[in-house]
Amino acid sequence: MESTVITHFNKSIQAKTACGELLAPYIVSASKKVVQQLLAGHKVLSCGNGLSGSLANIITELLLLQYKLERPGFPAISLNETGMLTAICHKNGKSQVFSKQILALGQPGDLLIIFSSGTNPSNLVQAIQAAHDKSMYVIALTGKQDSDISALLSDGDIELRIEHNDAHQISELQMLSIFCLCELIDKQIFGGDN
Fold first, then answer.
1. Strand 44-48 relative to strand 111-115, pairing
2. pTM above 0.90?
3. pLDDT tens-digit map of 63-83
4. Rounded CA separation 135/169 (Å)
5. Measuring CA to CA, how many Å separate 44 from each of 29, 60, 90?
6. Band of the pLDDT at 192, cuts 50, 70, 90?
7. Where are the beta strands (DSSP E) in 41-105?
8. Which domains does the chain have, with CATH numbers?
9. What is residue 193's predicted lDDT score, i.e. its pLDDT?
10. With b meaning 16 or more CB within 10 Å and e meaning fewer, what string describes 135-173?
């Protein structure tokens, strides 16, 4: 049993080493985009399905409250609130659970951060379309199989694509990317070592 644990840790280390250098410039670009939009008075909306929905909640918490640095909160909203999701699913169907909220809450210049582990979910495809309809920017943390999501991204959007086949490994790397992103945002706005 211990060998299973050690194997998981070793695979995690290998995946992080392989992805770190590839993702670094995209994480830096995404942090600059978030900072630019926050300083211009815009907000961040985030969403995802299942475990990816939990990542959307985490980035919202870290932006709204704090990462490491004690600071004022940034305007951030997770679109993964359970009551709202079930209400929209009941009335409009699951493919509109995020797009319906984006059309109601999003404003031009706002950011949508989506999380997907490589399943091309139709509700995230519609979320991106709704964000573009509202003249919002999109930062997409995606997996290897998210070709439909990638195809929808425009010039002002940023994709942090993790070329991996294991959905759990993708989510783990996206979590690390969140931490990097939040640290860079804080440093750019409040100063500190770069």
1. parallel
2. yes
3. 999 999 999 999 999 999 888
4. 32
5. 16, 8, 26
6. low
7. 44-48, 76-78
8. 31-190 (3.40.50.10490)
9. 59
10. ebbbbbbbbebbebbeebbeeebbbbbbebebbebbbbb
